[in-house]
């Protein structure tokens, strides 16, 4: 990427030095190069399985190039002052396809808030503008322009390249979005929050899955054979994309309105005062909306960036991490139709079950890698200790799926073999892990766990009625471990298929199978985890430095003066754009964030989710090698 | 303590873990082996101590606990704890699927890495009933077994071919048996197995 950057700087210098031709050609070749990198993409059907490295930067660089080229053409052509809008399309099509140059850098950072300030500068020639131009050209003469930004925000296919994978099915628009489609009266002076609440409320969509980020490194030989898990897209990305599209649309509308005003001025010399008022009014509205949106977008980026620069998961309190991971797991679990258990097979895996196992694998690898990352054994020990705390919290939250994932991750060979590291773990913590490990042990077909859950086929366990045990679980939000459910169904199906009954009975009618599906259903229909963290934990997050400064107002509630009652439950009544500013300012005066628990906590929650879903996928070999690097084997380990 | 357990509990339990890609027939092998008990009792015993079977050999009696990853192969990080403390690893491939055969090397390595030589490994080529679709020859299987120093057998869970033989051979090869094929370290392992054994009894107390 540095190459691209330096070429860009070079071209810029040429341009400034007046070497227009050289500058122009530099931009062209840089754009060509960037374009050819962007061909480095792999599809399976319409799903992207491997994206171009640093695509966001590449696209951004191309935009910059195109905008400079456009500028050069415009300012240095004889007698063609008017802009020819159509040339945008021409540019990209005309580009010849050069041979693939050497790749600039192999590291694809998972970071990249897609468009920094540079994107704004180069936007006029953005490849997406064609679409806006089309939109506009048909609507230019219509008076009701204000409606447009509202509609365009909910447009289901924003063309911005920020998304990890545009080709995947979009998340279902949230109900909030739909209510916004109603058109606002034209005369309303402040069109504030129609623009802002639209943003998805930051929930994880279990059906919008994207490949985990990958760090392409020297070990990439095994990458092709390594299945990269598909995990839920980070909600912040979706938010960012929607906002960016909205901003693009707004800016376009603003520009249109301004040029219309100019046109009117030049055409008629004297303006009808009504029209001028009208137009000025529009311009004011758009300017406000643009400003508001930019502000929010900046905040999204700030959080996005903060999450990306956080060096370790330990930055977050264990209970918040546990809560956020539980929310993600809950969404994934609840999306599995019980009938999927029956149709699921090796040859025809059910996508919702695969989503669960993929996330399990992603998360366990994330844990392994987080532990193996620090060089110091004591630092690794802190991470193990941390994950044990998270595991305990998961048990409190009845999240057995994540509990099992953490216990498993701490027991995989690359982590388990770290004897120096384990020596640092306090005995209490080790004992805790052993207790959790016993609870989730496979021994006796997950005997202890089944007892705990009442998932046994007797009527009484340890003097307690199984029906009662189960009923108690159904009254609390619970995520069972999917493994035992799959295991039971596998065996019950095997028995069912070999029984004579199978010829005239559907599998789900077989009583035992029916019972397992029913258990699954009951858990899914049970109470849900609230979005906000339970109150007990409030004061605990103090000292999470830096985060508190970004803002206190709930990120996804931003302009939340809508009729939607406080999506975030942060209790702050705000009024559109101004509230963002005041909320922001207020936070600045309150840097320690002591008394802004709600907003602060909520933002931390968002950041944890973002952090968890943006970890790079590290393959098995890398983890194994890292483990050997951290603690080289001396002699054969005694079991 | 170990010796106490040995005296007080003559019925030894051994952990057999079944490994291999999805749909090679691990579950079928187990259900076929358990058939006499499985079909009649699965309703009553699914859950605790579900997959255990006592084998009566001429010189002694052993109880085999079968640990199957059934359907959970996708949860990759679950596998190490299945392998841990196992006495026997049954690595299964499908004779009509070459990829499943290629992947057995990885499973064998994983078991060796975790258990060293304190484990009996059996390479099993299943689905011999589908002979016309065969992609892996008997010789290839034998060669691979020899290369990795593991036992080898071909089976058909569907036809019931060689299934009993497989388990009988495993039982005979178990440490402590007269025909012991395991090497020097077996004492340590028996302690492990015994420890596990006593826990198991506490939890299950099952009469099956």
UniProtKB/TrEMBL annotation, chain A:
Transmembrane segments: none annotated. Residues 586-605 have a biased composition (Acidic residues). Residues 139-153, 566-583 have a biased composition (Low complexity). One of its GO terms (cellular component) is plasma membrane. GO terms for biological process: Ras protein signal transduction. Residues 317-557 form the Ras-GEF domain. Residues 82-195, 566-605 are annotated as: Disordered. It comes from the Eukaryota. Residues 162-178 have a biased composition (Polar residues). GO terms for molecular function: guanyl-nucleotide exchange factor activity. PROSITE patterns: RASGEF_CAT (PS50009). InterPro entries: Ras-like_GEF, Ras_GEF_dom_sf, RASGEF_cat_dom, RASGEF_cat_dom_sf. It holds the Pfam family RasGEF. Residues 240-267 form a coiled coil. This is Ras guanine nucleotide exchange factor domain-containing protein. It comes from Absidia repens.
TrEMBL record, chain B:
The keyword Iron does not apply. Gene3D superfamilies: P-loop containing nucleotide triphosphate hydrolases. One of its GO terms (molecular function) is GTP binding. Coiled coil: none annotated. It comes from the Eukaryota. InterPro entries: P-loop_NTPase, Rab, Small_GTP-bd, Small_GTPase. Transmembrane segments: none annotated. Pfam families: Ras (PF00071). GO terms for biological process: protein transport. The keyword Protein transport applies. Keywords: GTP-binding, Lipoprotein, Nucleotide-binding, Prenylation, Protein transport, Transport. Belongs to the small GTPase superfamily. Rab family. This is Ras family-domain-containing protein.
């Amino acid at each position: 990427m540095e190459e691209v950057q330096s070429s860009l700087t070079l071209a810029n210098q040429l341009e400034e030095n007046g070497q227009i031709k050289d500058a122009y050609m530099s931009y062209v070749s840089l754009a060509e190069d960037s374009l050819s990198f962007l061909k480095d993409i792999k599809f399976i059907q319409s799903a992207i399985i491997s994206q171009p490295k640093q695509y966001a930067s590449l696209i951004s660089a191309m935009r910059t190039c195109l905008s400079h080229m456009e500028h050069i053409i415009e300012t240095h052509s004889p007698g063609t002052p008017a802009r020819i809008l159509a040339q945008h399309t021409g540019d990209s099509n005309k580009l010849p396809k050069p041979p693939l140059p050497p790749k600039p850098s192999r590291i694809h950072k998972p970071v990249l808030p897609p468009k920094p300030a540079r994107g704004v500068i180069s936007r006029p020639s953005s490849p997406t503008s064609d679409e806006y131009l089309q939109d506009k050209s048909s609507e230019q003469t219509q008076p009701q322009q204000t409606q447009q930004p509202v509609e365009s925000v909910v447009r289901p296919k924003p063309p911005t390249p920020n998304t990890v994978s545009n080709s995947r099915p979009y998340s279902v628009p949230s109900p909030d979005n739909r209510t916004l489609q109603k058109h606002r009266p034209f005369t309303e002076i402040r069109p504030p929050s129609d623009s802002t609440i639209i943003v998805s409320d930051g929930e994880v969509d279990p059906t919008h899955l994207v490949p985990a980020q990958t760090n392409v490194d020297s070990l990439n030989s095994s990458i092709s054979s390594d299945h990269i898990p598909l995990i839920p897209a980070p909600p912040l990305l979706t938010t960012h994309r929607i906002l960016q599209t909205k901003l693009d649309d707004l800016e376009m509308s603003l520009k249109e309105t301004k040029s219309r005003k100019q046109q009117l001025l030049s055409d008629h010399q004297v303006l009808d005062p009504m029209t001028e008022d009208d137009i000025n009014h529009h311009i004011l509205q758009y300017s406000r909306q643009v400003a508001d949106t930019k502000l929010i977008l900046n905040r999204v980026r700030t959080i996005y960036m903060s999450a990306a620069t956080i060096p370790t998961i330990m930055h977050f309190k264990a209970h918040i991490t546990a809560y956020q991971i539980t929310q993600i797991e809950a969404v994934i679990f609840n999306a599995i139709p019980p009938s999927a258990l029956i149709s699921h097979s090796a040859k025809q895996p059910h996508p919702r079950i695969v989503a669960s196992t993929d996330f399990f694998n992603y998360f366990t690898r994330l844990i392994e890698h987080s532990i193996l990352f620090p060089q110091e054994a004591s630092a690794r020990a802190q991470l193990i200790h941390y994950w044990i705390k998270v595991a305990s919290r998961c048990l409190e939250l009845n999240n057995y799926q994540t509990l099992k994932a953490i216990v498993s991750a701490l027991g995989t060979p690359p982590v388990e073999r770290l004897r120096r590291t384990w020596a640092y773990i306090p005995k209490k913590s080790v004992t805790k892990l052993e207790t959790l490990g016993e609870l989730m042990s496979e021994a006796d077909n997950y005997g202890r766990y089944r007892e705990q859950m009442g998932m046994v086929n007797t009527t009484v366990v340890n003097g307690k009625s199984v029906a009662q045990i189960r009923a108690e679980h159904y009254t609390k939000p619970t995520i069972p471990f999917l493994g035992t459910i799959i295991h039971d169904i596998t065996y019950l199906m095997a028995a069912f298929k070999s029984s004579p009954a199978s010829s005239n009975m559907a599998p789900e009618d077989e009583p035992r199978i029916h019972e397992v599906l029913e258990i699954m259903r009951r858990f899914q229909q049970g109470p849900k985890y609230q979005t906000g963290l339970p109150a007990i934990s409030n004061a605990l997050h103090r000292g999470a430095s830096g985060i508190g400064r970004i803002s206190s107002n709930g990120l996804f509630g931003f302009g939340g003066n809508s009729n939607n009652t406080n999506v975030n439950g942060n209790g702050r009544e705000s009024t559109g754009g101004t509230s963002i500013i005041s909320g922001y300012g207020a936070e600045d005066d309150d840097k320690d964030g002591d008394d802004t628990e709600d907003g602060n906590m909520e933002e931390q929650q968002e950041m944890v989710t973002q952090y968890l879903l943006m970890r790079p996928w590290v393959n098995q070999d890398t983890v194994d090698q890292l483990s050997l690097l951290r603690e080289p084997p001396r002699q054969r380990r005694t079991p | 303590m170990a010796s106490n357990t040995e005296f007080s509990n003559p019925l030894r339990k051994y952990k057999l873990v079944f490994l291999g890609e999805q749909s090679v027939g691990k579950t079928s092998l187990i259900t076929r082996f358990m058939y006499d008990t499985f079909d009649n009792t699965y309703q009553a015993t699914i859950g605790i101590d579900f997959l255990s079977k006592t084998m009566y050999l001429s010189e002694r009696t052993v109880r085999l606990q079968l640990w199957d990853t059934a359907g959970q192969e996708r949860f990759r990080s679950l596998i190490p704890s299945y392998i841990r403390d196992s006495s026997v690893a049954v690595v299964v491939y499908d004779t009509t699927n070459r990829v499943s055969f290629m992947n057995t090397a990885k499973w064998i390595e994983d078991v060796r890495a975790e258990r060293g030589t304190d484990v009996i490994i059996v390479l099993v080529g299943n689905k011999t009933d589908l002979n016309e679709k065969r992609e892996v020859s008997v010789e290839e299987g034998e060669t691979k077994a020899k290369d990795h120093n593991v036992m080898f057998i071909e089976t058909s869970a569907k036809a019931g071919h060689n299934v009993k033989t497989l388990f009988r051979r495993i039982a005979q090869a178990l440490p402590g048996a007269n025909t012991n094929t395991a090497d020097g370290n077996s004492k340590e392992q028996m302690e492990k197995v015994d420890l596990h054994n006593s826990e198991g009894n506490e939890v299950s107390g099952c009469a099956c």
